[in-house]
Amino acid sequence: MTNDMTGDAVDNEADSRADIAVGDGFGMPAYDADRVARRDDAVRAAVEQGLLGPGSPIVGLLDVTGIRESAAALRAAFDAVVAPGTPVLHAFAVKATPLVPVLRLLREEGIGAEVASPGELALARAAGLHPEMTVLDSPAKTPAELREALALDIAVNADNPQELDRIDGLMKSAASRSPLGIRVNPQVGGGSIEATSTATATSKFGVALRDEGAREWVVRAYQDRPWLTRLHAHTGSQGIPLSLMAQGVAEAYALAEEINRRIGRRQITTLDIGGGLPVNFASDATTPTYAQYARLLSEAVPGLFDGRYGLVTEFGRSLLAKHGTVVARVEYAKSAGGRPVAVTHAGVQVATRTVYAPGSWPLRIAAYDGKARPKEGPAVVQDVAGPACFSGDLLAEGAALPLLEQGDYAAALDTGAYYFAHHYAYNSLARPGIHGFAPDGAGGIAFATVREAQSLDEIVAESGGAHTASLTTLSAPKRR
């Protein structure tokens, strides 16, 4: 049982995906009901197999079956609307879940990688992503990063005129087959979360199209550079309604049409429409869906899918969020001011956004008993707290769910993206281990290690343990 909560603003359209049309009898589509059942089985198996317990009180779990299903749904949604033979690359936004085994799994499912740093590029390469499946986006690419990307023939979207000048110089000094484009900001507005709205009037990303002279500069940039063949735009992610996302794509499409018309040839051949499909954090239902978004785009921007343009997408959160769960043991159950408080091992170190901005990033909590079975009982208003030493370290405040007791387990749901892969080292709390799971074919659950739990020695090493005496060896300046 989970607590009731309000999620971020998303379009409340009916979920009409054909493969989940049959429900569980209680209004939940079969696709989602199966995922919930797998999650419950995995939590119980994690305790039974010793991955979770008194000695290992927090773990991250990834539903491999669910990830595969999300990738298939994404591919199918766009295959249903694009003209036959249209080249389409779905590039996973690595920042959402920067884990090499996840990138490798997605590669097997035909999903590439959108990277925004040298570290993310290194992860993609370690996962075996080929250059043609990789796209580099970042607002602060260094000359070295650009040089490496061009040498590897990786697609690059230039963020601004100064970066394009750098690419000019690199293209003159060494030939590259990298598909190159410019990122533009269509300035169509923001959603309910400012931090994830990237098409506002003052967004730091891309060339702001409505600023004076900007649109004309973009057109000239393409006229002067025949090797610029792509155009990129991204409106935002969580909190962005589908209608606004479609408006941003429509603006980019109109610009591509204008550029090609003014140049007199089809120079722009590919449109990178970003990602950003919001996730429903309010329930287990998957909504909105890729199918809904693809259909909306086909109605709002029909020319996008007529085969004249290749497509790149950059979805992240929507591919992984529903398929991850952070589970933590309740170390103590207490009361303060008459309100029960469950003190767990999951807090700000794994749910930084939720702890510091709970209004924008609330989480549902599922209660499990000491044997990791879904806990029954009347809903009790309670706080679910983390282990960090500050009062705001709360996974959920005033959550209504069965009373959590010492030795129970609290599961933070929908945490497959931007949670257990983005550790915040408050109090030097260790990064939890992460394990993928899938049915073993014999009625049980099989686990595979995605990332080992961080050791105390690793914490010390990251904190300068190899340089213990370095500061004491510096001599104080002599007074004159």
Helix content: 25-40%
Mean pLDDT: 91
CATH class category name of the largest domain: Alpha Beta
Largest sheet: 9 strands, mixed
What gross morphology would you assign? globular
Whole-number radius of gyration? 24 Å
User: Hey, roughly how much beta strand do the residues contain?
Assistant: 15-25%
Oligomer: single chain
What structural class do helix, strand and pairing data support?
alpha/beta
N- to C-terminal distance: 72 Å
Order of helices and strands: HEHEHEHEHEHEEHEHEHEHEEHEEEEEEH
CATH superfamily of the largest domain: Alanine racemase
> Low-confidence stretches at least 5 residues in length (pLDDT < 50)?
1-26
Number of strands: 18
Mind telling me which CATH architecture of the largest domain this is?
Alpha-Beta Barrel
* CATH domain topology of the largest domain: TIM Barrel
Count of folded domains: 2
Structure description:
The chain has 480 residues and is of the alpha/beta class. It has helices spanning 30-48, 64-79, 100-108, 118-126, 143-151, 161-173, 214-224, 242-263, 290-300, 317-320, 352-356, 456-462, and strands spanning 58-63, 88-93, 112-115, 134-136, 155-158, 180-185, 207-208, 228-233, 270-272, 310-313, 324-336, 339-344, 365-368, 379-385, 394-402, 409-412, 433-439, 445-451. The strands form 2 sheets. Strands 1, 11, 12, 13, 14, 15, 16, 17 and 18 form a 9-stranded mixed beta sheet that branches. An 8-stranded parallel β-barrel has the order 2-3-4-5-6-8-9-10, surrounded by 7 helices. The longest helix has 22 residues, at 242-263. The radius of gyration is 24 Å and the shape is globular. Mean pLDDT is 91; it is low at 1-26.
